[in-house]
Design brief:
This protein is α/β, with parallel strands linked by helices and about 240 residues long. It folds into two domains: about 1-80 and about 155-160 and about 185-235, Rossmann fold, CATH 3.40.50.300; about 85-150, no CATH class. The chain is about 35% helix and about 25% strand. It has helices at about 45-50, 75-80, 95-100, 110-120, 120-125, 135-145, 165-180, 195-200, 225-230; strands at about 5-15, 20-30, 35, 55-65, 65-70, 80-85, 155, 185-190, 200-205, 210-215. The chain has a six-stranded mixed β-sheet, sandwiched between helices. A four-stranded antiparallel β-sheet has the order 2-1-4-5, covered by helices on one side.
Length: about 240
């Protein structure tokens, strides 16, 4: 059996002496997709920050293609193929759309024509500064910029937060095409449970820094009791 693209083995991590994640183990296969669900404050964003190397790892290991990268700094993890879209988007406000994209460019299938094909609105706005974009356009730019690094695994932290339903639908369609047509492995942290499950193959639900439930994404919407208990809401698209 092939090694998973990404693996966590018994990870305990947090900030300083504060433990946020405790005994977390999971895998993401090549071209796979994982939804990370749970209430606010249960460790979902900390999971992504741990994968990128921004937290204190107290125990366990982070594996990339079977090799331990627990001590690798964030820039080295990005070079290995981890792409991260932070919840805050963190685009460069004083650079144009195209400059935001080209500054992150690395060789691979994702180049300007490819990301403009995925996000036509960015092509229309290519000369606009980052601070001249709507919230939805900024999120598109943040994802497109991460893709320009040509990652093997893309980490998305609440990409639909604060966006109008029509923009959420457009953005979800682009993410779906990205995964289906280009095979980009994805870890998606998201409060929109129905959308998250519709985009992914596997799901984990966090509670108090631990994985409390694992399921196939297509099966979890039918487990209403688990969703109400651990997420606190019913599935809605």
């Amino acid at each position: 059996m092939a090694e998973p693209l990404l693996g966590l083995e018994g990870v305990r991590a947090g900030y300083g002496d504060a433990v946020v994640l405790d005994d977390v183990s999971l895998e993401v296969r090549e071209h796979g997709s994982l939804a990370v669900l749970g209430r606010n404050g249960v460790g979902k964003t900390t999971l992504l920050l741990t994968l990128m190397g921004y937290t204190r790892l107290m125990r366990g290991a982070v594996l990339w293609r079977g090799r331990d990268m627990s001590s690798a700094p964030p820039h080295a993890r990005a070079r290995r193929g981890l792409g991260w879209v932070a919840q805050e988007r963190e685009i460069f406000p004083s650079l144009s759309v195209e400059e935001n994209l080209t500054v992150a460019s690395r060789p691979g299938r994702w180049d300007l024509p490819a990301v403009y094909g995925l996000f036509p609105r960015l092509a229309e706005r290519r000369a606009n500064m980052g601070n001249q974009l709507s919230g939805g356009e900024q999120q598109m730019l943040a994802i497109a910029r991460a893709l320009m690094t040509n990652p093997a695994l893309l980490l998305l932290d609440e990409p639909f937060e604060g966006l109008a339903p029509i923009v959420v639908e457009e953005l979800a369609g682009a993410i779906r095409r990205m995964m289906a047509e280009h095979g980009t492995a994805t870890v998606l942290v998201e409060q929109h449970v129905g959308i998250a499950l519709s985009l992914t193959e596997e799901a984990v639900v966090f509670e108090r820094g631990k994985i409390a439930h694992r399921a196939r994404s297509r099966e979890l919407p039918h487990d209403i009791e688990t969703l109400e208990r651990l997420v606190g809401l019913r599935v809605s698209a």
